[in-house]
Specification:
Number of strands: 9
Largest sheet: 4 strands, mixed
Number of helices: 8
Structural class: alpha+beta
Strand content: 5-15%
Low-confidence stretches: 1-28, 229-237
CATH superfamily of the largest domain: Ribosomal protein L30/S12
CATH class of the largest domain: Alpha Beta
Radius of gyration: 18 Å
Number of domains: 2
CATH topology of the largest domain: 60s Ribosomal Protein L30, Chain: A
Length: 237
């Protein structure tokens, strides 16, 4: 997946550039993304940017995903869901919104999904190297009861339910307002963190956690249910 950013048309897969400015800048960018609003070209509804995917036209007129919202040119915004993007492609709404002869291919939603996954994988890897992420059931449980509890629990979507249930219940018992992210598979987590069979991880409060939460929420629109935002309200059955 790390090779996906090689071509110009796939520039959207590079989500690492903002990290160089530090976690504080990431916090500020996440807050601005939540505050700014854009119009969805499919529904016409005005939404905060963290519920949308930005698209841009490449020099050849092809519509490309811009999940980092950094590509040059006019942005075309669509709700972060497979259904909305499929409708935009089918109805040729990108060309209508751009008022230009731009082309959106049928695999556009799949490319958005890959871009979000790659961006999350990159951020998880950097978070681990910076010390903002811990791995393994025991380490995560220790973080939950520590002085600075994690803001995000990262759980493999295809991991064992028993361990996930115990961590979820612990977060509920401790009344922690952390987010459970369950939109990546164990193989994807392993690729990000350089280990096999990764099931449990946790990220401390800060820019990495905020951006992972934002991207996971958007990714859930392409992978279905499994994204939880308030484990403190009710433990999983």
């Amino acid at each position: 997946m790390q090779a996906m950013a090689a071509k110009m048309g796939e520039t959207e897969y590079d989500g690492r550039a903002p990290v160089a400015r530090g976690a504080r800048d990431q916090d500020e960018k996440s807050s601005r993304a939540e505050a700014r609003e854009r119009r969805d070209i499919v529904s016409g509804e005005v939404m905060p940017e963290n519920r949308l995917i930005r698209f841009a036209a490449a020099p050849d007129g092809t519509v490309v995903p811009d999940v980092a919202a950094k590509l040059p040119g006019r942005g075309l915004w669509v709700e972060a869901s497979r259904a909305a993007i499929a409708k935009a492609v089918e109805k040729k709404l990108f060309a209508k919104a751009a008022k230009a002869n731009v082309t959106a291919t049928a695999d556009l939603a799949d490319r958005v999904e890959k871009a979000l996954v790659t961006r999350m994988i990159g951020d998880l890897g950097i978070a681990r190297r910076s010390g903002a992420l811990v791995l393994g059931f025991d380490n995560v449980l220790r973080e939950l009861t520590g002085p600075r509890p994690p803001k995000a629990l990262i759980e493999a979507f295809d991991g064992s339910a028993d361990g996930k249930r115990k961590l979820y219940a612990a977060a509920h018992r401790l009344e922690l307002n952390c987010v459970v992210i369950e939109t990546l598979t164990s193989a994807e987590l392993g690729l990000a963190l350089g280990r096999e069979n990764v099931i449990h991880a946790a990220v401390q409060p800060g820019g990495f956690a905020d951006r992972l939460i934002l991207d996971a929420e958007r990714l859930s629109g392409f992978r279905g249910a499994g994204f939880r935002t308030r484990p403190t309200e009710s433990p999983r059955a």
